[in-house]
Each structure stands twice: as C-alpha cells, then as structure tokens.
Design brief:
The complex is a heterodimer of chains A (399) and B (297).
Chain A lengths: L1 H34 L9 E7 L3 H18 L3 E7 L7 H13 L8 E2 L7 H5 L27 E14 L12 H10 L4 E2 L7 H14 L14 H5 L1 H11 L4 H4 L5 H9 L5 E5 H10 L6 E4 L8 E7 L7 H11 L2 H11 L2 E2 L8 H6 L15 H13 L10
Parallel strand pairs in A: 1-2, 1-3, 5-6
Antiparallel strand pairs in A: 4-6, 4-7, 4-8, 4-9
Chain B lengths: L1 H49 E2 L8 E2 L2 H8 L1 H34 L3 H11 L6 H12 L4 H8 L12 H25 L3 H9 L4 H29 L3 H6 L7 H11 L3 H33 L1
Helix pairs in contact in B: 1-12, 2-12, 3-7, 3-9, 7-9, 9-12, 11-12
Classes of the chains: A alpha/beta (399), B mainly alpha (297).
Chain lengths: 399, 297
C-alpha cells in the first residue's frame, strides 16, 4: 500500500512536470506564427482548456472529452491542463488572461472551467466573450435556470438529493417533501445523516433547504452579495427545526465531516438515508461503492439546491473559433449524455432534447428546478448559526 | 620563547574567531527563516489582535475586545477546554503505553524485541489522512472491531468515530513512534554498570526502576511530554475527520473561523491563544534542554 502510494505520488509529480513541459514550449511556439502572420498555423490549431475540477471531472475531460472532440474536429488539438490545487485554480488562469489583455499578449487560454458570475470586476474589465445562440448554436437547448450570466455557459450540473436504502425503507415510507422527511427522521431515530454544512455541499444544501422551508420556500429571495440581516434573523426557525431532529440524527447527533464520509455511512448500513450529491451518488452506484439497493429521490415540493458548472472564454483567446466550437461541442447531445452516464452529472440541456430511454432511467434525479444557494457571506452566516445552535454541545439557551 | 608563545596564542585566538564566524554564518539562514516566517508573523498577529480599530475611529487603539469576545463565547471556551482535555488525556495514555514498551526495548535484545521496535515505529510512515480513513474502517460503525465483536456475541459496541475518543485513539496511534524513540534513547543512556552494581548490592527490580531509571529518564520524559503536548494541541487532520462537530479542537475551529466564517480577527485571536499555550510548554522544553547542555559542559 505504502509503496503504491509513494509510486503514485512520484507518478503525479512526473505528470505535473510533463504537463509543465508541455505548456512551456507552446508558449514559445505560440508566439512564432504570430510573427509571420501571413502563414496559416499548422494543420491543427491548439485549444487550451483548463479545469480545476475534482479527479472525476479532470479524468473525464482528459479521457473522454478530448478524444471525442478531436475525432469530430480533426482540425483542432486540445491541450488539456488540470490546475486543481495550483494557486486558485482556474481563477489564476483568468487573472493571467486579464493581465495578458492589458499587454495584448496571448493568454494561452481558450476555454476555462470557470464561472464568470462570481467575479463582477472581471466582467467589467471586459475579459469574457459573450456566449449565446449566435456563436454557440447548441445554447438554445440549455435550461433557462442554468443561464445565470451571458459570459459563461453551463455544461453540467449536480444537485443534492436524498439517497436511501430501499431494502430498509419501503417505497410507501419514502418521504416526498421536506416536512415528511422531518417526520420520518423523528420516527426512525439514528437512521438519517447529513454532513456538516461547511465540510460538504451535501450537508450545506440540506441545511439550505431547511432555511428555505422556514422562509416561505422561495429560493429567489436569497440574492448573491452581502446578507440581508432581516432574512438571517429568520434562520433561527431553521435552527429550531434542525435542533429538534438533532437527537434523532445518526449516533445521537453525529455529523460526518464531508460528502464521502456520509456516503460511507449509507454504504456500510449504519444509516438508511442521507442527503447526497446526485453526481457522487450515481457514480458510487455505478462503481458498486453503494449497494444497488440504494435509490435516489428528490423532494416534490421544493428540491434541494445544487448548481451548474459553466465554461468561460476570454475575449482575447487566440483561437476564438476553436474555443466556441469546443463550448458548442460540450452542449451537443453526445457530450450531454456523457455527462449523465460517465460522471453522473445533470445535463445542462433540457431533458426533452435527450433520448427517451435516458429520461426514464434517470427519472429519480430529474427536476425542472435547481435552486442555487448564493454562497459567500450567506454560507458563513449559515455555518456559524448551525454550529452555534444545532450541533453544539452547549445548551443554546444558557450563556 | 616568550615571542613564540605570543604568536601561538594569536593564532589560536584567530582560529577561535574564524570558527566562531563560520558558526554564525551557518546558523544565519535558519535564523533568518525563523525570524521572517515565524517570529515576525507571530508578533504581527499578537499586535493585530490587541490593537482594534473601532467603527468610525481613525486609528486603532489598544483593546482586549478580541480576547473578551473569545472568552465570552461559550463555544470558544468549550473548544479550548476540550483541546486541553484531549491533549492531556492523549499524552497520559501515550506514557502509559510507551513507558513499559521503552523499558522492554531497553533491556531485551531478542528478535521479538526487534519486531516490536519495528512495529512501534510503523505509524511514523503512515500519513495522517490515510490513518484517519483506516481507523474509520476499523473502529467505525460496521467496521472490523464491530464485526468481530458481533461474531463473539457482543452487540453493545458503540463506535468512537465522530466522538472525542476517536480523536484520542488516532492521536495516540500517531504519537507512539516518537514517544518510544525518545524514551528508549533516554533509557539507553543509563549506564549498564549502574544497574548491575545496584543489583550486586541486592537491589530489587522495582528498586532499580524507582531509584535509578526513573530519576535518570526524567529529562527525556519531559522532552517527550512537551513535544507531544505541543503536537497534539495543534492537531488538525485527525480531529477534523474523526472528531465530533462539537466541541472541536482548536486546529479545526481556527480553520473554520478563518476559512468558513471569514472572521480573520477571530481566527487570529484563537491562533494567539493556542500559541501562548504552546509557548508555555515550549519554555518548559527549552529549559529542560538548556539545563542538560549546561550540565554536560
């Protein structure tokens, strides 16, 4: 085991070096054709694609997306770079592109796995290319809720839902609404778990859903940016609700420290129901990490939040045509089916545009609504409240 | 004759000066690193937590508001006490386990002793995160221990996973190699002749332990105590993955305050309090080590 690990880490170092080596020369060769502009570039033009996604995403880009794209578009070659854990990930690459724009240099980046929405200053600086039906034809199929900004294009989504063991929870007992779930948890003490909201989105979005429950089930009142103190004061009702079920949570109120530890508790039978990410659950099911008796469902009243991952293209991308073709390709039916089948993600396009058999196969995870929690300061207020009023070992009423 | 002795002494002095210079040159880089990467930021942190700019005020003034906020917060207090408690229990258990082990390794040279030595050092080569996941599988719900106990009919096993005991088990496991190493080294310094002569005059094994080994091993024991306390107090990975959501150890709490609540001043105050606690133990350690040096001279 140890030897294997050290070999793996050595291997990853070698890979990183190789990657670095691959990127460097292209920096030089990229400048050369620009000098002799009359001469068209070589037979294939390079598209630099960056992601800082988890291993499941970077593996998918490298092993499935890249070969499929190059097969369909032989005129391009994709230089795919993983920047997970390097600086601030794709944000660093975006910063670099912004700096390159100011000096008219080549940003060495065509497509970034990056959400422009989060950084208004970059949008104001005019860094991003507008993406819509005019330059990305497949954008017409993308669900409206996923198009939060015209400067990024959603290509996959995931959402938190309920995963349960159908061998322990009979079909007619499965709670259909959040209120039903609360009743179910109290009736089955120790059988439900969700992770700490700051340690994994599967717990965070479960807590978000509790907050929606006590604030009128309207996710749109939570606007990105600074928190609304009046709304935050209503969180107390959510804490009362969650504190009420606290003793009935797994092992007298124990909360695992992440998405995977939650899945582990479900997989080894310690609990019979958890809140989980759709993509992680589907992938765990297909790999056999979760027993096939595990089923997924989403609330029928208001689903739990989730989000879409978008691609962004810097305006100064050298190979703009290639970048747009790539984004368009990601929204093609072929790739959207791959999102579903290979990484367990949600398609970013309307389900109706996908084959009928898929729609019925994944019916449990299909929702027409993906509420998005604004994050940032809202999450900070949420986590602080949760630790102080729900998971605490101190009686919240005492001082 | 006289002139010769003068030249000798100047040469000697010159040599002394150059060797001292080389010495200082050699310690400069680590000293600079210490100053710029540890002392200076630590000092800045202390200053920043003490000088607070009130809302609307133009300049920061000396204030203990950060500290009164920390000690006025029941959760912060409970986390601090919890950290101290976990640290003391962990270190106590480490001594109970490792002291007999070290004595055994000191006096036995059989192949079993060698195997025990290797085994006791094994945790040194296992990264914390691997250990945490291995322990979840081992002592966690439906883990190896649970399964074995069920096989022999014990069904009342409650898992220490996500409980304070989970953290302690992990930290003890992680602390064994270092503790055994230093204690064994300390015991090896005790001269065999001392023990044999005591035995010759009829001292019992217990007497040998109490009157010779125990006094002579005090210093290494002190060193082990100090370094284990400091290490355990600031532990992060194992408390993060194995411990409960509340109370939390200071390392986890700090990361959360800084990273999640985005409360920089709060996290810094927690860091300074942790630092002060470790500094008190650190002074104990430095005193033990310098005393040893002074005696050797």
């Amino acid at each position: 085991m140890k030897v294997l690990l050290s070999k793996l880490s050595l291997f990853s170092i070698v890979c990183t070096l190789l990657l670095a080596a691959c990127v460097m020369p292209s920096a030089n060769s990229g400048a050369a054709p620009a000098a002799g502009a009359a001469q068209p570039a070589a037979a294939t033009s390079v598209i630099n694609v960056y992601t800082d996604g988890d291993t499941n995403i970077s593996d998918w880009f490298a092993n499935i997306v890249k070969p499929a794209f190059e097969k369909k578009y032989p005129q391009y070659s994709v230089n795919f770079v993983t920047v997970r854990g390097v600086g601030e990930g794709t944000k660093t690459i975006a910063d670099r592109a912004l700096a390159a724009m100011k000096t008219n240099a080549d940003p060495q980046a065509e497509v970034l796995d990056f959400d422009a929405l989060g950084y208004p200053e970059m949008i104001e600086a005019g860094l991003w290319q507008k993406l819509d039906e005019t330059n990305v034809p497949n954008a017409k199929d993308v669900v409206k809720a996923a198009r939060t900004t015209e400067f990024s294009m959603a290509y996959r989504g995931s959402q938190v839902l309920i995963a349960y063991d159908s061998s322990k929870v009979p079909e007619n007992e499965v709670p259909k609404t959040f209120a039903d779930l609360i009743t179910w948890i109290k009736a089955h003490p120790g059988q439900f778990a969700y992770c700490r909201p700051d340690k994994g989105g599967s717990g965070g979005n479960f807590v978000d859903r509790a907050i929606y429950e006590v604030t009128g089930k309207d996710p749109t009142i939570f606007k990105a940016g600074p928190v609304d103190p009046a709304l935050v004061s209503k969180f107390d009702d959510a804490w009362a609700l969650l504190r009420d079920i606290h003793p009935a949570i797994y092992d007298n109120g124990s909360y695992p420290a992440g998405n995977n530890p939650s899945l582990q508790l479900l997989a080894n039978g310690s609990v019979s129901m958890i809140s989980a990410w759709s993509d992680q659950s589907l992938q765990a099911l297909s790999k056999g990490v979760l027993p096939d008796t595990v089923k997924l469902y989403q609330f029928t009243d208001l689903p739990m939040p989730g989000g879409y991952a978008p691609l962004s293209v810097p305006k100064n991308a050298k190979n703009m045509k290639g970048a747009l073709d790539f984004v368009n390709f990601m929204l093609s039916q072929e790739m959207q089916i791959s999102v579903l089948k290979d990484i367990g993600g949600f398609p970013a396009v309307e389900w109706a545009t996908l084959p009928k058999d898929l729609q019925s196969q994944f019916t449990s995870v299909i929702t027409n609504q993906v509420p998005t929690w604004p994050g940032g300061a809202w999450s900070a207020a949420r986590d602080k409240g949760w630790y102080e009023k729900v998971a605490t070992n101190i009686d919240p009423n005492s001082k | 004759m006289a002139s010769q002795s003068i030249t000798f002494s100047t040469i000697r002095r010159l040599r002394h000066v150059t060797s001292a210079l080389v010495g200082y040159l050699l310690v400069t880089p680590p000293l600079l690193v210490m100053i710029f990467l540890i002392f200076l930021p630590a000092l800045q942190a202390v200053v920043r937590t003490l000088f607070v700019q009130a809302q609307g005020a133009s300049a920061a003034t000396l204030s203990l508001v950060n500290y009164t906020a920390f000690f006025g917060n029941p959760i912060a207090r409970s986390n601090l006490w919890f950290t101290i408690w976990v640290t003391l229990v962990t270190v106590a258990i480490l001594f109970v386990i490792c002291f007999p082990l070290a004595i055994y390794l000191r006096f036995s040279s059989s192949w079993i002793a060698n195997a025990v030595q290797v085994l006791s050092l094994f945790p040194l080569f296992v990264p914390g995160i691997i250990l945490a996941f291995a322990l979840i599988r081992f002592i966690g719900p439906h883990g190896t221990v649970d399964t074995i106990l069920q096989l022999i009919g014990i069904t009342r096993f409650t898992t220490p996973y996500l409980k304070p005991a989970g953290i302690i088990i992990g930290l003890v496991w992680e602390g064994i190699p270092f503790t055994v190493l230093v204690l064994t080294a300390g015991l090896r310094q005790v001269d065999n002749a001392l023990i044999e002569s005591a035995r010759d005059v009829g001292a019992s094994e217990w007497r040998v332990f109490r009157s010779i080994l125990l006094p002579l091993v005090q210093r290494p024991a002190m060193i082990v105590f100090c370094l284990n306390v400091i290490g355990t107090f600031g532990a992060f990975t194992l408390p993060y993955l194995l411990g409960p959501a509340a109370p939390q150890m200071m390392g986890v709490y700090m990361q959360q305050t800084y990273g999640e609540y985005q409360d920089r001043a709060g996290a810094e105050t927690q860091a300074v309090i942790t630092f002060l606690f470790s500094a008190v133990v650190g002074i104990l350690y430095v005193r033990t080590v310098t005393k040893q040096r002074a005696e050797r001279r």
